C-alpha cells in the first residue's frame, strides 16, 4: 500500500463517520469524491499496461569484455496516456553494467514511443538471453502500482577474445619446426608465391592492392598469394560431456576455447588456414577458415560450444585427421585425456602429421579430479609435443610453446 492510498482511505473514513453522525451533505459529497478517486485510480492502474508494447534489442555480436548496447523500445498503443511507467531490465549472469538499467517514464502519450538505452559488458563468451522486462505502471495520482513482466526476448552472441601471438614468437625456432610467424608469412609474398587476384575484402591489407587491375575493373582488387602448409593449424578442441572443471569464468573449457580462438587467429594472421574440430551434443563438427575476414565462422562455433560432446579426445582426434593432408600441424586441446589418446597420436605421426597437445590440468581446477600427468610420457613417446597448462599459468607463453612444438 502506498502512502497516498492510506492517506485517502483514512480521509474517506473520517468523512464517512462525520457524514453519518451529522447527516451533512458536504461530508457525504467529499466522501463520495474520495471513494471515486480510489476506484478510478485502481481501474486506471489495472488497464495501464494492456496497451503497452515493449521490444528489446541488443548488439548481436561482440567479444568478451566489449561493450554491447541494449535498447528498450516502449510504445503506447492505447487511446489514453500512461503515467509513471517504471521499466526495469534484469542482466544475465556474467553481464555487468555501469549504466542504470531501470528507467522512469513520467508520461507516455497515445501512439508515443520512447527508446531507453544502456551499455552492458559480458565477461564470458557464450550466448546470452535476457529475462522478461519488469514494468511497473501507476495511475495519475500514484495511488496504485501494478508490476507486470513483459516478454521481450533477444539474444547476444559473445565471441572469445583471441590472444595475439604474432608479435612474440621467435622466427628461428618456429621456422626450424616448419611453422612460420605472421611476419615471415607476410614477408614471403613474392612473385614465386603469386596465386592470383580477387576483389578486396574487409580486413585485407592496403599494400596488397593491385593498382593496375583496380584501375581496369573500376573496383579495389588485391593480390592473393599461395598458402603453404606450414601456416595451417588444425585445432581439435575436446568438449566431451563432463569435462568442464572449475566454476564461473575460470574453467578448463573457457581456457580451452580461448586457446583455440588464439591459435586459429594466429594461423589466419599468418596468411594460413585455420581448422577447428569440436564435438557437441549433435556430433562432431569441422570448420575451415581461409581468410581473416571470415574468422567469425570459427568464433561463432567457439562462442556456442559447451561440454556436451559425445566423443572422447582420441576419437575426435582420429575423426579430425580424416580432413587433413600430410604435413599438417595439429593441436589437441584437452582437459580430459583418455587412455587411447597415445595410440591415436601415434597413428597421426605415421601420416607425418605434427601433433601438439595442450594438456589442461583439470586437477588444478578441481581437486576431486585425479591428475592426468601419467599420460604425458606416453603421449611424448608417441611423438606428440605435450605442453601442460595449470590453473593460473600464462596462456600466451604456453601457446608460444605449442607453436614452437616443444614440450
Which tags fit this structure?
elongated; single chain; alpha/beta; Immunoglobulin-like; Rossmann fold; 21 strands; 407 residues; 31% helix; 4 domains; six-stranded mixed sheet
Assign the CATH class of the largest domain.
Answer: Alpha Beta
Quantity of strands, as a count: 21
Mean pLDDT: 83
For this structure, what is the CATH homologous superfamily of the largest domain?
Answer: von Willebrand factor, type A domain
- Low-confidence sequence ranges: 167-195
Topology-level CATH name of the largest domain: Rossmann fold
Structure overview:
The protein is of the alpha/beta class and 407 residues long. It folds into four domains: 3-47; 52-159, Immunoglobulins (Immunoglobulin-like, Sandwich), CATH 2.60.40; 171-189 and 228-404, von Willebrand factor, type A domain (Rossmann fold); 195-226, no CATH class. The protein is built from eleven helices and 21 strands. The protein has helices at 3-22, 25-47, 171-176, 182-187, 211-217, 252-269, 296-304, 313-321, 341-350, 375-381, 395-404, and strands at residues 52-58, 61-63, 68-76, 82-88, 95-96, 102-108, 113-122, 126-129, 133-138, 145-150, 155-159, 194-199, 221-225, 233-237, 246-247, 250-251, 274-280, 283-289, 329-334, 354-360, 385-389. It is elongated and about 110 Å long. Mean pLDDT is 83; it is low at 167-195.
Amino acid at each position: 500500500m502506498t502512502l497516498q492510498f492510506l492517506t485517502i482511505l483514512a480521509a474517506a473514513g473520517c468523512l464517512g463517520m462525520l457524514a453519518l453522525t451529522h447527516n451533512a451533505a458536504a461530508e457525504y459529497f467529499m466522501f463520495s469524491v474520495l471513494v471515486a478517486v480510489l476506484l478510478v485510480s485502481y481501474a486506471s492502474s489495472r488497464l495501464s499496461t494492456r496497451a503497452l508494447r515493449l521490444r528489446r534489442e541488443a548488439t548481436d555480436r561482440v567479444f568478451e569484455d566489449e561493450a554491447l548496447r541494449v535498447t528498450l523500445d516502449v510504445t503506447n498503443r492505447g487511446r489514453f496516456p500512461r503515467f509513471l511507467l517504471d521499466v526495469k531490465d534484469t542482466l544475465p549472469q556474467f553481464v555487468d553494467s555501469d549504466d542504470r538499467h531501470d528507467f522512469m517514464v513520467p508520461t507516455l502519450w497515445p501512439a508515443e514511443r520512447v527508446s531507453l538505452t544502456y551499455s552492458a559488458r559480458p565477461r564470458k563468451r557464450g550466448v546470452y538471453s535476457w529475462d522478461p522486462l519488469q514494468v511497473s505502471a501507476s495511475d495519475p495520482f500514484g495511488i496504485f502500482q501494478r508490476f507486470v513482466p513483459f516478454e521481450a526476448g533477444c539474444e547476444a552472441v559473445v565471441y572469445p577474445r583471441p590472444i595475439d601471438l604474432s608479435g612474440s614468437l621467435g622466427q628461428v625456432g618456429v621456422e626450424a619446426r616448419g611453422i612460420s610467424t605472421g611476419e615471415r608469412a607476410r614477408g614471403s609474398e613474392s612473385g614465386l608465391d603469386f596465386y592470383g587476384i580477387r576483389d578486396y575484402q574487409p580486413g585485407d591489407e592496403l599494400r596488397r592492392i593491385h593498382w593496375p587491375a583496380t584501375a581496369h575493373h573500376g573496383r579495389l582488387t588485391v593480390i592473393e598469394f599461395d598458402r603453404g602448409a606450414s601456416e595451417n593449424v588444425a585445432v581439435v578442441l575436446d568438449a566431451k560431456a563432463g569435462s568442464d572443471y572449475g566454476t564461473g569464468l575460470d574453467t578448463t573449457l573457457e581456457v580451452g576455447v580461448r586457446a583455440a580462438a588464439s591459435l586459429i587467429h594466429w594461423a589466419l594472421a599468418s596468411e594460413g588456414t585455420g581448422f577447428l574440430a569440436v564435438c557437441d551434443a549433435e556430433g562432431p563438427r569441422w570448420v575451415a577458415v581461409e581468410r581473416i575476414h571470415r574468422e567469425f565462422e570459427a568464433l561463432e562455433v567457439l562462442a556456442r560450444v559447451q561440454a556436451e560432446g559425445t566423443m572422447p579426445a582420441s576419437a575426435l582426434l582420429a575423426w579430425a585427421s580424416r580432413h587433413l593432408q600430410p604435413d599438417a600441424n595439429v593441436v589437441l586441446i584437452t582437459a580430459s585425456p583418455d587412455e587411447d589418446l597415445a595410440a591415436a597420436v601415434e597413428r597421426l605421426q605415421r601420416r607425418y602429421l605434427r601433433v601438439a597437445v595442450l594438456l589442461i590440468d583439470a586437477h588444478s581446477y578441481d581437486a576431486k579430479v585425479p591428475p592426468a600427468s601419467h599420460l604425458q610420457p606416453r603421449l611424448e613417446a608417441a611423438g606428440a609435443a605435450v605442453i601442460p597448462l595449470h590453473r593460473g599459468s600464462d596462456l600466451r607463453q604456453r601457446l608460444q610453446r605449442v607453436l614452437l612444438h616443444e614440450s
